[in-house]
Amino acid sequence: MSRIGPKDTKPELVVRRGLHAAGIRFRLHRGDLPGRPDLVLPKYRAVIFVHGCFWHRHDGCANFRLPKTNTEFWHHKIDRNVERDREAIVELRKLGWRVLIVWECETRKSPPTNLIDKIMGWIAGTTEEEEIPRPLV
């Protein structure tokens, strides 16, 4: 798991390629913004995070299962990731940015044009904060 990098993951590339093909231009991993969003759309004052279902605890998703070994370590690590995500979103909202979270499991569905259509709808809309797919709660 140490080989999994924070940038240029397969789910992130699916979103980037789809948005670029749709004519949306963006910046990547801006370090001056809280949480270093995966995609920053300055024209729309919007950011997109592409979260891995395991690393960011996508509740109710088949891709999230806590490892059976060293569970205390993993529980603490993933809890801290989720807490850091919440903090970054709160800070971004205070700075006037709209926030979209795209979960990894959604990028695996075919065709990816459905996902890109959902993202394009969010970009064109006025919703301040959203997740794709929406939470199961």
TrEMBL record:
Question: What range does the record give for the signal peptide?
Answer: none
Give the UniProt keywords, A-Z. DNA damage, DNA repair, Endonuclease, Hydrolase, Nuclease
The processes (GO biological process) annotated in the record are: mismatch repair
Example GO molecular function = endonuclease activity
Pfam short name (any one): Vsr
The EC number(s) this enzyme carries: 3.1.-.-
Recorded hits in InterPro entries, A to Z, give: DNA_mismatch_endonuc_vsr, Restrct_endonuc-II-like
Similarity comment text for this entry: Belongs to the vsr family.
Q: What does this protein do?
A: May nick specific sequences that contain T:G mispairs resulting from m5C-deamination.
Specify the protein name: Very short patch repair endonuclease
